[in-house]
Write a structure and sequence with these properties.
With 169 residues, this protein is an alpha+beta fold. The chain is built from four helices and seven strands, in the order αααββαβββββ.
Length: 169
């Protein structure tokens, strides 16, 4: 490939990225971003932290697949809810764990089929603690996550979860 073609190619890629055409991430002020951030809050602030498991169950797809790098695969909504009730939210659990979102880490990427929005990928960083007031700077228990949200019968449902890179700082 000659130098002028390489230059044109690189300039074209640069233009696409700088113009936002090639970047799929939505703006934090967009309705999609705000809506999925609210869904994250229902799933974790209410379902995980406050153990209002049935509130979070309403936004989970029946065929949920949850992949966790430490505890393996959960392959249904029913199994996920049961794990929540008998694990994190078990009343006999004396070491209740709380989940916190690293707010600036959240990113949302819409997914289209021939121009029609059918889902979105939500990525971010979260951390966990038995201290309900823990901050990210003091935490040593963090991980990355990817949530695939799909529109089913005009409702957003959590379809696939990958929770990975669980590590200490």
């Amino acid at each position: 490939m000659n130098q002028s073609i390489k230059s044109f190619f690189l300039c074209s890629i640069g233009f696409l990225f700088s113009s936002g055409i090639a970047m799929a991430q939505v703006n934090r002020d967009s309705q999609l971003f705000k809506m999925l951030k609210a869904k994250d809050s229902i799933l974790f602030k209410r379902g995980f932290n406050k153990c209002e498991v049935e509130k979070s169950a309403n936004i989970i797809a029946e065929d949920l697949e949850f992949y966790h790098d430490k505890s393996g695969i959960t392959n249904s909504k029913e199994a996920f809810i049961e794990t929540m009730k008998n694990g994190i939210c078990n009343p006999n659990n004396s070491n209740k764990v709380f989940r916190f979102l690293v707010k600036e880490s959240l990113k949302v990427y819409p997914m289209y089929n021939n121009g029609e929005l059918y889902g979105a990928l939500q990525n971010g960083t979260h951390f966990f603690s038995t201290n309900e007031t823990m901050t990210y700077e003091k935490s040593d228990n963090f991980a990355l996550f990817s949530h695939l949200w799909i529109i089913e019968k005009n409702e957003w449902k959590l379809k696939r979860v990958i929770s990975y890179n669980h590590a200490s700082k």
